[in-house]
Amino acid sequence: VVVGPLAGGLSWSCDDDRVGYLRSPDSFLFFVDDRVSACEALVFYMANGCLDFESLSEEWGNIGREYCGRQFKFSADLDRDAISVEVLHMSGRKLLLQPQVDFSNMDSPRGKQLLHEEVKDHGIIFLPKSKSLAIPGMLLLCCAVICPCFRAKRKDPIVQTSLDKDLNLSKLVSPSDVSASTNKTPTTTHKVVPSPRFSLSPQPNKIGSLQLTINQVIKATQNFSPSLKLGEGGFGTVYKGVLHDGSVVAIKRAKKEHFATLRDEFSSEVELLAKIEHRSLVKLLGYTEKGKERIVITEYVPNGTLREHLDGLNGHILDFNQRLEIAIDVAHALTYLHLYAEKTIIHRDVKASNILLTESFRAKVSDFGFARAGPTEVDQTHISTKVKGTAGYLDPEYLRTYQLTPKSDVFSFGILLIEILSGRRPVEMKRCFEERITVRWAFNNFNGGRVSEVLDPKLHEDVNLEVVAKMLSLAFHCAAPTRANRPLMKEVGEQLWEIRKDFGRSLRSE
Ligand SMILES: Nc1ncnc2c1ncn2[C@@H]1O[C@H](COP(=O)(O)OP(=O)(O)OP(=O)(O)O)[C@@H](O)[C@H]1O
User: Fold this and answer.
1) Residue nearest atom 24 of ligand 1, based on CA coordinates
2) Ligand 1 mean position, distance from CA 239 (Å)
3) Ligand 1: distance of its center to the CA of 354 in Å?
4) 228 falls in which pLDDT band (50, 70, 90)?
5) What are the alphabetically sorted keywords of the record (predicted)?
6) Could you identify the atom of ligand 1 that is nearest to the CA of residue 302?
7) Is the ipTM of this complex over 0.95?
8) Among 423, 495, 402, 497, which Cα is nearest to 121's?
9) What is the pTM for the complete model shown?
10) How far is the centre of ligand 1, averaged over its atoms, from the C-alpha of 311 (Å)?
């Protein structure tokens, strides 16, 4: 990705790369061959201590250069053994690029935490110069740049088939499915301590509030009538069911032919669903098993999937406000799963076709077939498990290391946010090469100041572009290649709330 040295410039080594740069009293220019990866490269080299810190002296302080459509200001703080990179304001994107992390008191516990955690925020990246932070070489960069293509090559992403079902990816599946690990990696810092605050554990012998016999299920679905079929997923077929009291439910029937392999997923879904209760999560109502039938009964959500609505299949185009509300609902649902359920729950398959919409276009996250309980011990940073999820939404770090944390959901959410804004699927193979990987295409447009290009052309309204830019910026933050650089889901929700306020203000000032 990085080529150099430049004519008349300098260069240094970073793993296998030679990093070229030019510097003058007032400029600092990296030379890379790919605009998209340039910022990632910069962050990567800094994170790995590959910048030539030794030659970094006072004279290097406060030098800047417009770069990637942004203005980076480098400041060496040799006393603190650290370097900061500040993104300066650019016209038109002032708010977006405002520093969001206050480093004024680096001696505070939070300051120390930042110093040691290698935190990147929108406005400032503050990195210790210690090389102990070294992250496995170019893999990180590859994840940022190549990984979307990597996924696309393996599976036609238009099909959006779950990886677990994708034979091409079976090689990626770790033999150790459930081995919890307490191994720490230098980049893993957010420990998840589950709070029992909203524990809603059912009786062990009674899952859900609705106990139906198989015969009642057959009656409710008119013997699994095709006319009541709502859809089909990897684990089974979903039917609309009408109970004797007239209430409507969704009934998911496991496919018999895959029953043996699906048993785990089904029971995982049932166990996890039974423990959660949130308005933006599809509620488990009951579970029935008899012989080779496994039936999950959930709340019926009547208005189709988010993906269908983005495609305009229901004859209705979601307006910007509805899209923002949907993003907020999903963020809240995931925050609940990560923080407030009895155990930390990682959904692992956040995508537009797993977001169901109510009649008033509020979102409910569904499909817990891949969901896993997250780390349970305080010093446990991740669990090691098979890679499961859907091509295009998969966290590259999880794909590479098999280490699962709630940040994998954050990555998928970032991809989903771009999907919500653009209407495009994460990978669209029928488009020209530059536009196939939606996150990359969006990032290019964003950096080129062409925010409006990213907006779904089906949206027939004038949306304040600063609001769109903020949402995009948040999406890219979520989809950072390494989990340490992603926000927590709770923070994502908080930022979306702020964006909603801005959006409201922008409407009032029109
Ligand atoms: N609770 C529900 N209410 C209404 N419709 C539902 C409900 N659950 C699922 N559906 C419909 O059934 C379809 C299949 O759902 P399911 O969760 O089994 O699979 P999927 O998420 O589409 O695919 P996969 O499981 O392979 O990722 C959904 O796309 C949706 O249209």
Assistant:
1) 233
2) 9
3) 7
4) very high
5) ATP-binding, Kinase, Nucleotide-binding, Serine/threonine-protein kinase, Signal, Transferase
6) 4
7) yes
8) 495
9) 0.63
10) 16
- The angle at the Cα of 115, spanning 111 to 116, to the nearest 5 degrees, equals 120
- The enclosing H or E element of 325 equals helix 320-335
Any atom of ligand 1 within 6 Å of the Cβ of 160? no
Angle separating helix axes 35-47 and 438-447, nearest 10 degrees: 90
349 assigned to active site: yes
For residue 414, pLDDT over 90 is answered with yes
Phi, psi angles (nearest 5°) of residue 206: -140, 105
> How far is Cα 453 from Cα 446, in angstroms, rounded to an integer?
8
**Cis preceding linkage at 148, omega within 30:** no
Phi, psi of 197 (to 5 degrees): -50, -45
Q: CA-CA-CA-CA torsion for 231, 236, 240, 242, nearest 10 degrees?
A: 170
State the catalytic residue, choosing from 164, 329, 349, 395. 349
Instruction: Give the residue among 93, 23, 143 at the shortest CA–CA distance from 447.
Output: 93
- 490 annotated to a ligand binding site: no
Mean pLDDT of the chain: 66
